């Protein structure tokens, strides 16, 4: 049975920067891509070319905008900056090294109870998921039966996918969202499904 006004969303994690897996960057400024990250972004763009997205949106953070700029050049699209796609607000943990955070009991609780906890002074994962899915529903109305690419961040993408899959956010660590990966979501009025997860384009 066909559904009207279906939208296909490519949820793209930004390409890698030199602090990935070392620092909780959150919304800190000045986190940019190096040569390796720019190469990853070009592989991402090549993988998307055959899908010919109708539009491209990006988180306002520098690492996402740099990824989106590469994609835009390859897809002949102008990346539109959307605050709804920004990283989870990590509050006072922003910019801290993971090795340091592992000594903080609040960090341990955050990672074991994502459905019920928040970073100190920050945003819950559920709040991030709600804002990105609200934005996705707006896009469905703007691009009925369209294809749209969204450049965002790992936990934001995980929150959106978990909501569609009916998973508790405490299951956030059961799947990965790698840098420069593609996860594919199809949405329609009142529902949706995940049709691709964490696909990393290869050379």
Automatic annotation (TrEMBL):
<dbReference type="InterPro" id="IPR029033">
    <property type="entry name" value="His_PPase_superfam"/>
</dbReference>
<dbReference type="InterPro" id="IPR013078">
    <property type="entry name" value="His_Pase_superF_clade-1"/>
</dbReference>
<protein>
    <submittedName>
        <fullName>Histidine phosphatase family protein</fullName>
    </submittedName>
</protein>
<dbReference type="Pfam" id="PF00300">
    <property type="entry name" value="His_Phos_1"/>
</dbReference>
<dbReference type="GO" id="GO:0016791">
    <property type="term" value="F:phosphatase activity"/>
</dbReference>
<dbReference type="InterPro" id="IPR050275">
    <property type="entry name" value="PGM_Phosphatase"/>
</dbReference>
């Amino acid at each position: 049975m066909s559904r009207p006004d279906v939208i296909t969303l490519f949820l793209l994690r930004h390409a890698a920067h030199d602090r990935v897996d070392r620092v909780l960057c959150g919304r800190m400024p000045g986190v940019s891509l190096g040569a390796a990250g720019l190469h990853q972004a070009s592989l991402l763009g090549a993988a998307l070319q055959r899908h010919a997205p109708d539009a491209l949106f990006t988180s306002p953070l520098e690492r996402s905008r740099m990824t989106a700029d590469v994609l835009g050049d390859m897809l002949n699209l102008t990346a539109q900056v959307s605050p709804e796609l920004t990283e989870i607000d990590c509050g006072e943990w922003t910019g801290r090294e993971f090795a340091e955070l592992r000594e903080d009991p609040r960090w341990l609780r955050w990672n074991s109870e994502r459905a019920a906890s928040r970073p100190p002074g920050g945003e819950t994962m559920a709040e991030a998921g709600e804002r990105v899915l609200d934005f996705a529903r707006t896009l469905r109305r703007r691009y009925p039966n369209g294809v749209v690419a969204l450049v965002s961040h790992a936990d934001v993408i995980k929150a959106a996918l978990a909501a569609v899959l009916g998973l508790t956010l405490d299951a956030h660590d059961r799947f990965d969202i790698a840098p420069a990966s593609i996860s594919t979501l199809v949405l329609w009025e009142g529902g949706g499904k995940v049709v691709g997860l964490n696909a990393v384009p290869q050379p």
